[in-house]
Amino acid sequence: MACLLRKSLRTKALFLHKLVGNSSDSHQTLASSSWFWCRQLSLSLPHKTTTCFASNSIPSPSFSNALLQIRFWASEAAATELSTSDGLTVQRILANNWTILDEHDGDWRSHATAIAQSIHLIKRRLQWEKLKVRLDMLSFQLGKEDLWDDPMLAGKLSREHGSLLGKMKEVNALEQELLEHIDMIKLAREENDADLESESLKVLLNMRRNAKEKELEALLAGEHDSCSCYIEVQAGAGGTESMDWAAMVMQMYKSWAQRRGYKVTVMDEMPGEIAGIKRATIKVDGEFAFGYAKAEIGVHRLVRISPFDSNKRRHTSFAAVAVIPILGDGSTHVQINESDLRIERFRAGGAGGQHVNTTESAVRIVHIPTGVTATCQNERSQHQNKASAMAVLQSRLDQLEMARQAQLNAKHTQSLTDITWGSQIRSYVLHPYRMVKDLRTNYEVSDPDSVLEGDLDSFILSYLSASLDKDDDA
Amino acid sequence: MNLSLSGVYRPHSLPKLLTYSSFSTLCRPFCYSALSSSPTCVKPQVPLFLRPPIYSTKLCDLKKWHDWGKGVALSIGSTFVQSDDGPDSSMLCRELKWLMEDAVVDHSLGVEDDDRVKMRIGIEGLYCLWKQRVQERRPFQYVVGCEHWRDLVLSVQEGVLIPRPETELVVDFVADVVSENEDLRSGVWADLGTGSGALAIGIGRVLGSERGRVIATDLSPVAVSVATYNVQRYCLQDKIDLREGSWFEPLKDMEGKLAGLVSNPPYIPSKDISGLQAEVGRHEPRVALDGGIDGMQALLHLCDGAVLMMKPGGFLAFETNGEQQSRALVDYMKNHRSGSFCNLEIRADFAGIQRFVIGFHQ
Ligand SMILES: C[S@@+](CC[C@H](N)C(=O)[O-])C[C@H]1O[C@@H](n2cnc3c(N)ncnc32)[C@H](O)[C@@H]1O
C-alpha cells in the first residue's frame, strides 16, 4: 500500500517535471508543445504539414486558429511521437539494437526492446501510415455539413472512424506507457530506489507479454475478421480416397475450432458412398473465427498409402476449403426478395404428409437470380433447417456482393466453386516421409498427426503475417 | 442383458396402478395401456429431454451403447426403404445422435472412460428404446416423447399424431394474412383436430399479445390431454382453449363468429391405410389418419361447417392428401357451396405437392 502511494506520487512528480522541464515560461510551454506536435507531424506526413510548421514558427493572428486545427488533427490522428524525458522514442529504442533476453532474465533494455518491436509490428500490421490517412479522411467527411443526408453512410463512416481511432489510441497508450516506465526506472536509479525499480521492471515484463498478444490481434484487423464464419470442405476428384481426405480435413477444422473455444455446428453434410464426405459445411461461432479461418482457403493436398487400396499404393488426394464470413447485424446485408427464392424439400419423394413419418426435414433454398443455393439438415425441424439455410444463403450472397464491390477483398471471399484445383496451399505427406508444408509461406512441421488433430495456429499465424508483409510491399 | 425397466419410465406421481400395468407389457410406456383401458383422465407423458437427470452411467458404458446402436442402425442399410419407404441407416444414425442428446445432460460429458455421465434415463432404458425404434419401428418421436416442429418442441406420445413438417406451412399462411389484417389478428381462430396442439400453438404465437385467441378441438382424449400439456409448456393457457369433441360440436357458441379456421384432418383413403410405412401404420392412431373411402370425409364436413361458423372475410386453410384432393375440395367449395368462399387457392408444400387449400369466407 505504502509502496503504491509512493509510486503515484512519483508519477505525478515525473509528470510535472516533464511538463515544465523544457521551458521556464508557462506561455512558452503551450507554444513549445504545439511546435513539438508540428515537428512530429512533419515527420509522419511531410507534404501535409509544411503550412502548420510555418504558421507555428512565426506567431501571427492566425496562430491560435492554426493551433486549434493542429491540436484537433493531432489528437485525432495522434501523430505525436512520444518520448521519454531524455528523448528516447520507440524508433530510437529499436535503433539501439539492444539484445532481447529471455523474459525472466531480462533487464529493462531487453523488455523495452521487445515491447518496442511489438509496437512496431502492430503498427505495421495496422498499416499505420494508411490508417492515419484514412482516419484523416474520415474526420474530414464526418465534419461535412451534409453528413446526415445519408444516415446509412454517416453511420458507416462514424463506426469506421470510431474503430480506427480506438486502435490508434490503444497503440499510442502502449507506447506512452512504455516510455513512462523507462523514465520511472531511470528516476529510480538516480534516486537509488530499488523497490521502485523492480516494480517498474515487473510492469515492463507484463507489458511485454501483453504486447505480444496485441501483436496477434493486430493480425486480424480486416473488416470482417472478427466475424463468425462458415467453413466448407469439398472432396476433389478421386472418389473414396478424396472423400476420406475431405472428412479428415473437416475433422481437423472441427478440432481446431473446439481448441480455440469456438462453437461448431454441422450445417450440411453430404456423405460419400463408402467413406468420408463429398462436401460439408460447418458453422464456427466466435470472435475472430473468420479472421483466422480465412488463412485456410484453398486446396489441401494429401499424399499417403491408401487405406482403400488393397495393393497399398501411394495416392494423392485433394480437398478444397472455402470460408465465408457471417456478417454482423451492424453491416449491410444483401436484400433478399422472398419471390426470388425457390425452397425445396431435400430428398423428397413419395406421398408425404400424413403418409410418412420421417425425421429428415432438410431443405434446399435456391436464389433464382444468382443460382446460389444453401442447404441445412442438422436441425430437428424443417422450419429451423429453413432458417439456418437462409442464414447460409444470406452469407453466400453477402460474400458475392463483397467480392463484386471490392476486388481487393476477393481473395478472401472465394466460394468453393471459384477455387481452382490448381491453387494448392498446403501439402500433407504421410508417406514416404512425414511432413506438413504450407506452400505459400514454406512453413513446415514434421508431425502431421498433431496438425490433423487441429494444431493449426502456427500455420495460420505464419500465413497471416506473411500476407500482411506482402500487402506492405505492394 | 437385464431388461427390467422399473424406474425408467416412471413419470412422477403416476398412479401406481397405471405404472404397473404399463411395465407388465415390457418396455412399453404406459400410454398403450392408457389407450386400451381409456381412463377418463389421460395423464400426458413427460418427454425424455424434460425428465430429471437422476441416472448416471460410466462414459464407457454410454459409448458402448452408442456403438451398439450404430451397429444396429448400419445393419438396416436400405431394407426399410425398400419395404415401405422407411428410414435408412443414415437417418437412423442421426436419430441415435438425437436420442443421446435428449437422454444425456450435455455438460456432464467427461473425457475419461470412468467419468460419470448424468442421464435422464438408465442405460438399460436406452438399449430398450433403441430396440423399439429399430425392431418394432416405433417412431423416433414417440421414443423420445417429442417432436421439433417449427421453433417448438412438442410433446407427443402414442395416441397422438406426430405433427408433420408439411403442416408447418399452415402457420406461415396464417402469419401472412394476420400481418396485414387487424380483424383477423384480433379474432377467434379454430384448429379442428388439433392432435398435439401444433397448429393451435403455432397460431397462438403468431397472434401475439393482441386479443386474438384460438379454440382447438379433438375427438381423442389423449390428444386433448397432450395438447393441454403443450399449451401449458408455452404458457398459452389464456390464449388457447382446448375442447374435447367432434369437429364443430364443441363450438356451438361460436356460430358465425370465427375469424379463422385451420385443420389438418385425417385424409388418407381407407384402402391405403394397410400399406402405410410401419412407423405410421403400426403406431400412429388410425383416427388421426383415416379419411374414409376417398379420404375426403372430414374435409368436406369441415367445409360445410365453415359456411355456418365463419364470419364474412374469415380466412381458412386445410391440409390435404395432395393435388387430387385439393382440386376436388376447391371444386366442392365453388360448386356445392357457391357464393360462400372466395379467393380460393391451392398451395404446394416444399416437396412440390399441391398440399393446401386456402381462401376466405365471403
Ligand atoms: C392428421 S391429425 C392432425 C393433428 C394436428 N392438427 C397436426 O397437424 O399435427 C387429425 C386429428 O384429427 C382428430 N380427429 C379425428 N376425427 C375427429 C373428429 N371427428 N373430431 C375432432 N377431431 C378428430 C384426430 O384425433 C387427430 O388428432
From TrEMBL, chain A:
Residues 347-363 form the Prokaryotic-type class I peptide chain release factors domain. It comes from the Eukaryota. InterPro entries: PCRF, Pep_chain_release_fac_I, Pep_chain_release_fac_I_sf, PrfB. GO terms for molecular function: translation release factor activity, codon specific. One of its GO terms (cellular component) is cytoplasm. The keyword Protein biosynthesis applies. Keywords: Protein biosynthesis. PANTHER family: CLASS I PEPTIDE CHAIN RELEASE FACTOR, PEPTIDE CHAIN RELEASE FACTOR 2. Belongs to the prokaryotic/mitochondrial release factor family. This is Prokaryotic-type class I peptide chain release factors domain-containing protein. The lineage of its organism: Eukaryota, Viridiplantae, Streptophyta, Embryophyta, Tracheophyta.
From TrEMBL, chain B:
GO terms for biological process: methylation. CDD domains: AdoMet_MTases. Signal peptide: none annotated. The keyword Transferase applies. Keywords: Methyltransferase, S-adenosyl-L-methionine, Transferase. Pfam families: PrmA. GO terms for molecular function: nucleic acid binding; protein methyltransferase activity; S-adenosylmethionine-dependent methyltransferase activity. The keyword Cytoplasm does not apply. It comes from the Eukaryota. This is Methyltransferase small domain-containing protein. The lineage of its organism: Eukaryota, Viridiplantae, Streptophyta, Embryophyta, Tracheophyta.
